[in-house]
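Office hours follow-up: a student asked to see two folded examples consecutively, so here they are.
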Amino acid sequence: MDLTPVFIFAIISVALYKILQLFVCRRERLAIIEKISDGISATRICEMLKNQFGDYTTLRWGSLAIGFGIGMLITAIVALTSNWDTSIPHFYQYRQMLAGGIIILCGGLGLIAGYIIESKQRKDAEK
């Protein structure tokens, strides 16, 4: 069975679809640019981002970074002080899973600590 006509039809169909999609997307992009240029300034964008993410974004990222750092430190201490039997099958995979688990756990604890600090600061600001 010769599939050449099927491939030719498929190639022509895809090419036509992509050409039509190019023109339609171009019109949509031009419409979006017109809407954006009507009334959005840099200060308005900054205000929208501040309202969306809040005032405590740096606290959240900082607590996450501290949690990851503590997790890496605990992982290093566990790896250096433990005398594990390396003859266990898949030993290195288990060790990597343990390391990843500790790091993610401490990162989550860091985010929870950041949330607690943030909620306390909001309560103090409301008083």
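And the second, which I mentioned at the end of office hours:
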Amino acid sequence: MRKGFNPNKDKKTNELEYYHQVIIPVYIPHNSDYFKDSFKILQLTINSLLKTSHDQTFITIVNNGSSIEVTQYLDDLLNVNKIHELVHTLNIGKLNAILKGLSGSNFPLITISDADVLFLNNWQKEAYKVFESFPRTGFVCPSPSSKLLRHYTYNVIVENLFSNKMKFTSVKNPTAMKRFANSIGNPEFYNEHQLENYLTIENNNIVAVIGGGHFVGTYRGEVFKNITQKHSEFALGGTSEYEILDAPVPQNGFWRLSTHDNFAYHLGNTFEDWMDAVEIKNSTSKIVKPILKQVKNSKLLNKFKSLIFSLLFRKKWIWKKFLVFKGLSKETAQNY
């Protein structure tokens, strides 16, 4: 039986003081074999995030069926208000855990990160520069990669095809790219040419790299507003990450970019001494909320850009001519 009137009925929720959400799904079922160092690496991830994030950052952790030890650690973080939201589930898969983190909120900026990322100082500030300097930006990765210039970037490339502001420039931090290659167990991931040059775009003296990976990245919240997929059949991989984290960026008319320099490291599942040696300072400076300009999106025009890109740039000889047109030598383009 119900008596009286619920005081919250028809009452609008208060707007949160936060404008930037960070979502980290965590799956560490035990501390042996593949997961031997994962708990230590998770602690590095969260400690670096807490140190480098501004005070209007809302941190959501989705515990995706982790061990009792990890669960207790996350509970302790919530209890002392170091994180703002903690969702406990059974192992429902990485993408389903991310979808849980996205639901029930409406943040203008959302960072989605793996649980093995070392956040470096100024990662938010540098991402915001990209969002403001390139109003069509919908995604910014803080760790640039020369190999991802064709990864869901068809609209950036087609729209700037004849602009002299989009061109190949020298890689600013090749050491960071080498560390990424090692972190995925493939030291030869980049060849010598890919470590020397990447495709960039410039505006208002701010340089961004074309493309970006999804191990960590900041999205405009609008990217996820029209997602109809509420569940992924894959625990990890498959088509899930592309359909939910990658494709919606250009489909909504946004650009996929990375910061010019490196502001985050992918750590992998094995601890190395250098990870503890990276100097990370507590963030004390105030960061002004970036102005996100409205971006018009035509689905028909978007499909046309995608079609043009597919027809032209999937042909190797045309792609090589494009690489030369944008600044690479013929020899480098041949092996890029």
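Two things to take away from it. Residues 138 and 254 are 5 Å apart (CA to CA). DSSP finds twelve helices and twelve strands in the chain.
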